[in-house]
Design brief:
By secondary structure, the chain is α/β, with parallel strands linked by helices. The chain has eleven helices and nine strands. α7 crosses α8 and α10 packs antiparallel against α11. Bound molecules: pantoate.
């Protein structure tokens, strides 16, 4: 496995893979890798001749400076893991490599970024859009892999790929969960044992909503019940619990069996902000 730090390291390698007609898979990450990331890497290893994993904690997508400071960094362990499963290249650029100067360009994803994550984390999707565009330009993958756990990010990047005609495919990989259902996330590393147990309120609420929706209960009543549960759990602070179309993120007031839908949740458990989602009608 080779460590790539700059485009100058990568460009000749990219050219030689291009000449061999190799399919290059890119798995963009911010490190602190868990099995959810490894699922994406394994998909790439199965379908591409070359797999590049990028590890870059992108400062411009953090609307909360403390969240950025405290973002877990387990680089040595990440590299060991990636090497052990046969990754070809790890791109670990410095902040100066990605941002030689402050980016003035702003990307606006329209209605897609005015709701849920976009509403609660102003500027977040601009940072994601800029860094993912840079990674696509620098690495020039044939296919890029993203996790379904970040459902709105997937919709945003799909829009980016379509609107800017990036010549690549996107593959979305289902959310990997712990045995009790908690969605794997690098931020889980920051939960203390009590918070780890309380964090299950996210998944349990999604599951309850799914079960009740499919058995015909009204969304308004289900949502109210979930909001009450959160209010009775002092360490959990709910930001949103919404029923949406998973591509447009249009919010539904009522559930309809014939329309695609997912339920999305974001909540603070203590100081740690977690998100999750569950498809109801895929
Ligand atoms: O999902 C993430 O880890 C990040 O948002 C990404 C796509 C690597 C961009 O920094």
């Amino acid at each position: 496995m080779k460590l790539i730090k700059t485009p100058t390291d990568w460009n000749p390698l990219w050219l030689s893979h291009l000449q061999k007609n190799h399919r290059i898979g890119l798995v963009p990450t911010m490190g602190a890798l868990h099995q959810g990331h490894l699922d994406l890497v394994e998909k790439s290893l199965q379908s591409c001749q070359v797999t590049v994993v990028s590890i870059f904690v992108n400062p411009t997508q953090f609307n909360n400076p403390e969240d950025f400071q405290k973002y877990p960094n387990t680089l040595a362990k990440d590299l060991e893991l990636l090497e052990s499963i046969g990754v070809d290249y790890v791109f670990v650029p410095s902040v100066e490599t990605i941002y030689p100067k402050a980016t003035e360009l702003r990307v606006d994803f329209g209605d897609l970024e005015r709701v849920l994550e976009g509403k609660f984390r102003p500027g977040h999707f601009n940072g994601v859009g800029i860094v993912v565009s840079k990674l696509f330009h620098l690495i020039r993958p044939s296919i890029a892999f993203f996790g379904q756990k970040d459902l709105q990010q997937v919709a945003i990047i799909r829009r980016l790929v379509e609107d800017l005609s990036f010549p690549l495919e996107m593959e979305v990989v289902p959310t990997r969960r712990e045995a009790d259902g908690l969605a794997m996330s690098s931020r889980n590393l920051r939960l203390n044992p009590t918070e780890r147990k309380q964090a299950l309120i996210l998944f349990n609420s999604l599951e309850k909503a799914k079960r009740k929706l499919l058995s015909g209960e009204s969304w308004t009543e289900i949502k109210q019940e979930i909001l009450n549960n959160f209010e009775n759990t002092p360490t959990a602070q709910l930001e949103y619990f919404d029923l949406i179309h998973p591509d447009t993120f249009e919010e539904y007031q009522e559930f309809q069996l014939e329309k695609k839908s997912s339920v999305c949740v974001a909540a603070f458990i203590g100081e740690i902000r977690l998100i999750d989602n569950l498809p109801i009608i895929p």
